[in-house]
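User: Teach me something about this protein's shape.
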Amino acid sequence: RVPDLIMMNNSGEVGVVPKLRIRGTSTLIGNREPLWVLDGIVMQDPVDIPASDLNDPDYINRIGNAIAGINPQDIERIDVLKDAAATALYGTRAANGVIVVTTKKGRVGRPIVTYNMSTTLRQRPSYNDRAVNVMNSRERIQFSRELVEQHYPFPEDINRVGYEGLLLRLYNQELTDAQFEKEVEHLSALNTDWFDLLTQNSVSHTHTVSINGGSSDATYYASIGYTRDNDVIWDNKNDRYTAILKMDANLTSWMRASLNLNGNVSSRKYYQQDLNPMEYAYKTTRALPAFDENGEYFYYLQRGRGNFGTEYYSYNILNELENSSYDQRGAGLSVTANLQFNIASCFLSNLEHRPRRLVGRKNLLRRQTARYGIRCITGTQNRGRTRYYGESDLYRRHQPAALWRGTLL
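Assistant: First, the predicted structure itself:
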């Protein structure tokens, strides 16, 4: 648990990134998103967009945050920084808090191959669910009858469907009384199952294969992953491929090198925001057919705003979903190389390999080191030995040869 950490899910779609807030919702820099740090590297957002749009759920939820391409199975630990230490390390960028993500790395030992699979089953809503309390077709028709009997003033922008649509056709003498009653009885027994037409029971799965191992000189960790998220809404899906390679090597006792490669490819397909099939299934009357008697899409007149004011156009949500959608594709690759030096270890290591044969007092070298600091001496011996004479000639070779000195102090 992290105190004051707020995580909000703004959508039930698959692959949608939750909104994280570490230090509240107010901001001085126009962006309320925390700073992400991956293995010591500050990560940037995948798309450079203004802060005003970045705070819009339609952008950040679907595009993803700075680490959206990381496989969760490759994460070893997550640290959250939100106090003065974060500001001291990352400056004003840490005003909204810092989330430090550390990925797994190789360990010393024989190679170990790991396979991880997870499966998620999502059940679609149903009119039989307790949380779904809507009227069936007959109840909806009876409710409309009662409104008409009480002379309820229907709004002008009402869609001309169901009982209200038939009544308007009756007033316009497009239907006789017998035809009107016949159509009303047909709609009363219709009970269109919009949840069945617009949603499905979905199965999502994630696969990850990793290998790690190494010796005292070098370690490695590599993994590849695949994720397929299927939404309960028809044809909403998210595919993602990830790969990571981490290598660490001890080149010498005082030099260490590391190489990190991280790549991902993703693709998403989802409906247009104006459609919202789940809301349509909840709010649309069941006394409205989805198909006509020939099995074709049933279109009704829906009110909308056009270039010249209010207009009516033929509408069927199944046709809209079939012919309109958003396709989003993304890819990312990051390469990080580090070379670390330990200068103190360098000098101490070379000092340990100094010549053993000295003339004079045994503590001569120790005294000289205390006076002038630790020095690093290298060179080739002449005829298999090197001689030193006196305190002043401690670092001078008897036989002239190339000699370099390094001093810490």
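Now, about its shape. The longest helix spans residues 137-149. Residues 355-409 have pLDDT under 50 and may be disordered. If you'd like, I can walk through any region in more detail.
User: That's plenty for now, thanks!
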